[in-house]
Design goal:
About 45% of the residues lie in helices and about 10% in strands. It is mainly alpha-helical. Helix 1 packs across helix 4 (about 100-105) and helix 5 (about 120-130) crosses helix 7 (about 155-165). It is globular, with a radius of gyration of 16 Å.
């Protein structure tokens, strides 16, 4: 029953979020555009439910010459590519706000495993081991609140599998609350860490 209710809640909450936060979107869009050349949004091919692909949106936080399909932790020196405004957006996770559109469309959920890059074969394979590719990816998830950037791929996939084995309203609420606490504290954010997407 909850998987159906989850999709309804995702649609309603993301739609409300897009409306209520539209002034924030406007301000952040102006800041991104005014402080570095390039587009406001950064579209990127990601892996969705059942390993289908979709285009995920973020506010652009890197210079336009940054490698587009390389996870941040694989860049030699990621800080050289991140813009001044981009650092703020990443630290506060405000760069993720455009994914409310992906949630509204049904590509993503509010809670679920973070969507892997289309070429992150190691993470995708590990998630197969734990049965974690069969749900919609999320804006936040269990792995996000249990280590985020500090987690190695295997541990992240294990947490994703643990979540997928027990998807419930109460657990989603706990993860959302823990995410808010984590974002406000800036905990576990490390651009060179093994799991930053």
């Amino acid at each position: 029953m909850y998987p159906y209710l989850k999709r309804v809640l995702d649609f309603i909450l993301s739609g409300l979020g897009l409306i209520v936060l539209s002034p924030v979107f406007l301000i952040l869009g102006i800041l991104v555009k005014a402080t570095s050349p390039g587009p406001v949004f950064f579209p990127q091919k990601r892996i969705g439910r059942d390993k289908t692909t979709f285009i995920m949106l973020k506010f652009r936080t890197m210079r336009t010459d940054a490698p587009a399909d390389t996870p941040t932790h694989l860049l030699k020196d990621p800080y050289t590519y991140i813009t001044g405004v981009g650092r703020f957006l990443r630290k506060t996770s405000l760069d993720e706000l455009p994914q409310l559109w992906n949630i509204c469309k049904g590509d993503m959920s509010i809670v679920g495993p973070r969507p892997a890059l289309w070429n992150q074969d190691d993470l995708i394979a590990e998630r197969d081991r734990y049965g974690a590719n069969g749900v919609r990816p999320g804006l936040t998830g269990l792995a996000q609140v249990r280590g985020r950037d500090e987690l190695p791929i295997g541990r992240k996939a294990a947490y994703d599998g643990e979540y997928c084995g027990d998807v419930s309203f109460s657990r989603d609420c706990r993860i959302i609350w823990q995410t808010i606490s984590s974002v406000l504290s800036g905990k576990d954010i490390n651009e060179g860490g093994p799991g930053r997407d």
